[in-house]
TrEMBL record:
Keyword Transmembrane helix attached: yes
Listed name of the protein: HdeD family acid-resistance protein
Transmembrane segments: 7-26, 75-94, 100-120, 127-146, 152-175
Pfam families the record matches: DUF308
Keywords: Membrane, Transmembrane, Transmembrane helix
Keyword Transmembrane part of the UniProt annotation: yes
Organism: Dactylosporangium maewongense
Length: 188
């Protein structure tokens, strides 16, 4: 189970780094191309969040929510995952939306995902990397939502830096998780 989680975090991290590099190298890329890249990245992240939310747990399942009782982080991940899927599909279906609208969508997505990551990190021991990803996500999202008119280049750079930083931290978290799993296997 830990190996699969580490792999999913690693894929999310690689996609974030690639997306960030593209956004920095080609800031003048058209809104359509940026929207499609963002859509693919957000769908992948949404799927990863949903996979984590749907993991079986040892606790009793709440018949109303479908989640384990007392398992708020699963609900947060499910909401973030569904939001990511919707935003990603919208970005791909309507790539011609204006840069300001895309910036607000990106900012809102970053805030929601960041809050979900912070919530999960608060419930884990040693989840500092996930907490840092969440904090960076919230700060970047707020910057973009507050200043959507800052221009396509500045927004592309801010998104690129955010994506690279969070991608590297996700790769670190995946590495730590994979070694945590190895430690448990060798102890057994």
């Amino acid at each position: 189970m830990l190996r699969r989680e580490a792999w999913l975090l690693g894929v999310r991290g690689v996609l974030a780094v690639v997306f960030g590099i593209v956004a920095i190298i080609w800031p003048g890329v058209t809104v359509i191309a940026l929207a499609v890249l963002f859509g693919i990245f957000t769908i992948a992240t949404g799927i990863e969040q949903l996979v984590h939310a749907m993991r079986p747990s040892a606790g009793a399942t709440n018949p109303v929510t479908g989640f384990a009782d007392g398992n708020g982080p699963r609900l947060a991940r499910a909401v973030a995952g569904l939001f990511g899927l919707v935003v990603g599909v919208l970005a791909i279906v309507w790539p011609g939306i204006t840069g300001v609208v895309l910036a607000v969508i990106v900012g809102a997505w970053a805030i929601v995902t960041g809050v979900a990551d912070l919530w999960l990190a608060a419930r884990q021991h040693g989840g500092w990397t996930l907490a840092l990803v969440g904090a960076i996500s919230v700060v970047a999202g707020l910057f973009v939502v507050v200043r959507p008119e800052a221009g396509a280049v500045a927004i592309a750079w801010a998104i690129g830096v955010y994506a690279i930083a969070s991608g590297v931290l996700l790769l670190v978290a995946a590495y730590q998780l994979s070694h945590q799993g190895r430690g448990r296997l060798s102890a057994a």
